[in-house]
Design goal:
This protein is α/β, with parallel strands linked by helices and 270 residues long. It is built from 7 helices and 11 strands.
Length: 270
């Protein structure tokens, strides 16, 4: 199934709308989609070549409409490698959005904190990432007959990151910043794995995002990423998905405020 066919099917459902920004929402953050005005809602399963998430906290809908005066496409729930999908499936909607003319990708996730300076409910702006999934959405793809080599230096747009911190400051919120490590999952990390990730320089860990960002950069999209810190890994502290969804839902309120402010000032990022 080609990306072009999926994009054509979605374009036909959007009633002439031309989104300029894709927003992908992580576990517990789906309520942000409720802020979209004059929305057209598309069931992901109505599109060829797509799959729906089986994970609590993720829905199977795309919401296109106005958010802070911008035409946006919101992916309210994503699929994951650990559900049995490959990297090409996981990133399909990023490439579809690029086909529709989207130029900016805002990606969010729920993540475990790896540093004592984080507390559950914090929002972290992603400065960089570690792809620990063992796969890539570029594998097997060619451009001009050659493998697709994509420069990932500066993958997360510096001006967009600065603007996110400025907007949060104006709202009286403090955003954390750091490196996100993306693993396959679905098992949460062992203490030894947590220690390894800290040694490698990671500040938060989750089970998504990194492959989507690689695909977005391959498509030439500007990227801004947020992690909702739903738990902080510590000695003898257990992690449950219910906790992730609950804390993510609380963090969604702050994320919504930051996103609305960011969209209102998006032109300042060039």
């Amino acid at each position: 199934m080609t990306v072009e066919r999926t994009a054509a099917a979605l374009r036909a459902r959007l009633e002439g709308r031309r989104p300029e920004l894709l927003l992908t929402l992580g576990s517990g953050l789906g309520s942000v989609a409720d802020a979209v005005e004059d929305a057209v809602v598309v069931d992901v399963l109505d599109l060829p070549g797509t799959a729906a998430s089986t994970v609590p906290g993720h829905t199977a809908r795309l919401v296109c409409g106005q958010l802070a005066g911008r035409e946006v496409l919101v992916q309210a729930g994503r699929i994951h490698l650990y559900e049995g999908h490959d990297a090409h499936d996981v990133t399909r909607l990023v490439r579809v959005a690029a086909q529709l003319g989207v130029s900016t990708f805002v990606v969010t996730n729920a993540a475990g904190g790896l540093t004592d300076r984080f507390t559950p409910g914090d929002l972290m702006v992603i400065d960089d990432h570690l792809n620990m999934t063992g796969t890539s959405p570029l594998a097997g793809l060619l451009r001009g007959g050659d493998p697709r080599f994509v420069d990932m230096a500066g993958a997360y747009d510096a001006r967009l990151r600065d603007l996110a911190h400025e907007v949060a400051g104006d709202l009286g919120l403090e955003l954390q910043r750091g490196v996100y490590a993306g693993l396959v999952g679905p098992a949460y990390e062992t203490p030894a794995e947590v220690a390894m990730l800290r040694t490698l320089g990671a500040h938060a860990v989750g089970m998504s995002t990194v492959n989507e960002v690689i695909a977005a950069r391959d498509e030439g999209l500007r990227v801004l990423g947020f992690s909702s810190v739903t738990n902080v890994h510590g000695e003898g502290v257990a992690t449950t998905h219910a906790e992730v969804v609950e804390v993510g839902a609380r963090a969604a309120q702050d994320l919504r405020r930051v996103l609305l402010g960011l969209l209102e000032r998006l032109d300042e990022a060039g």
